[in-house]
Amino acid sequence: MTEPLGSAGAARPIVVANWKMNGLRRAGRDLAEGIARLKQAGGELACDVIVCPPVTLLFELHDTLAAAGIALGGQNSHAAEKGAHTGDISAPMLADSGCSHVILGHSERRANHGETSEAVGEKAAAALAAGLGVIICVGESEAERDAGDALDVVGDQVRKSLPEQGGSGDIVIAYEPVWAIGTGRVPNAEQIGEMHRHIRDLFKQLKSGDVDGLRVLYGGSVNAENAADILSIEGVDGALVGGASLSAEKFWGICAHYGH
Ligand code: PGA
Question: Would the pLDDT of 13 be above 80?
């Protein structure tokens, strides 16, 4: 399968579309074609774009996206390579369907499926072994932020979710405060900047200084209107976009921040 992303390790920003559990074939195809058309018409972008549709659409959308230089990602994968895990998808299966990346440890999976940071770390190790880049999600709840524990909570998640393997070229971290996801509420620039610095410092420490290629994305209610402000914050290397990625125009309005 083609590998549309730029060279590994280049600290190019990334904008990721997380469609979550949305998209039957027809609508998914229309959306992917819409994004591909806007990308092709929009000229060079100083960022990489990854679309993470439901697993049922991966193979279906791969060629359309690849032709526009857009990479494909999964939304989750199992820690085992294969075996008796009914309903699960392994990292090699995602790679075999043309994915270059997988989102792991999204707060919806942590909350709805009891995924611990340790489990996320095991999944990440398996995904790296399958040749995928990993997008590891971390983020505090509103109560944790109100209690003044946000840095500690996220720091603990990063420490436990990072696999021993891999480095700044193939591990991406997405800071997604749980209270900002799908709510229209966004932390202020100071809070985002502080958390991204914290994550970067911690990664540097845990990966023996290998931090130059690291991308720390922000996620949570990013839209075409607030994208310029959020993506301009020092230490923000792109975005993980949920709701706004379900419209080609709205998603493109975010990517276009990196246009010329
Ligand atoms: P949102 O979701 O953009 O709809 O807030 C972000 C995410 O959950 O990744």
Answer: yes
